[in-house]
Every structure is written in structure tokens, then in C-alpha cells.
Amino acid sequence: MADNADRADAQNEIYMDALLHNLKARPVRECLELCADCEEPIPAARREALKGQGCTLCIGCQVINDQRKVALYG
Questions:
Q1: Which is nearest to 62 in space by CA: 12, 73, 40, 28?
Q2: CA–CA separation, 21 vs 72, rounded Å?
Q3: C-alpha to C-alpha distance for 42 and 34, rounded to whole angstroms
């Protein structure tokens, strides 16, 4: 008879498999070389760090965007 730890392990394995499947199913998005807001160059290190996820904003504009979201949505 399976105990709670065995059931938790099984549920965790199902969750991780689903998570990996969803990550693999995401479309690969390219990073822009220039920020969509201020048109300044996006540093190569940022583009490399977000490779495949896509980035459209430089770090400064991303910070401002994140602060706006916090102010609006909490």
C-alpha cells in the first residue's frame, strides 16, 4: 500500500513531466537588438540570457514596465 510520500512523489513526477512538456511546446521567440520603447541597444548579455524567450525591452525600460505593473495590479 502506497503511503503519502509515495503519492506525493508520483504527483510531483506527473507535475514535472507536464511542466517540461509545456516548456518544450512554447514557441521560440527572438530577442530584438533595439529596445521597443527607447530604441537603445539591448545588451548582448541580456539577449543571451533571454535566448528563446524573447526580449523586447532594455533593462531600464523593463524595470519601468515592471514597476507600472506592480502599481496597477499589485
A1: 40
A2: 32
A3: 5
Other C-beta atoms lying within 10 Å of the C-beta of residue 72:
7
**pLDDT score, position 1:** 54
Q: Distance between CA atoms of 34 and 38, rounded to whole angstroms? A: 8
Residue labelled with grid coordinates 507535475: 15
* Per-residue pLDDT of the chain in tens (74 residues, 90 and over written 9): 568 888 888 999 999 999 888 877 877 788 999 999 999 999 999 999 998 888 999 999 999 999 999 999 97
Residue with cell 496597477: 72
Residue 62: name the closest of 10, 48, 43, 73 by CA. 43
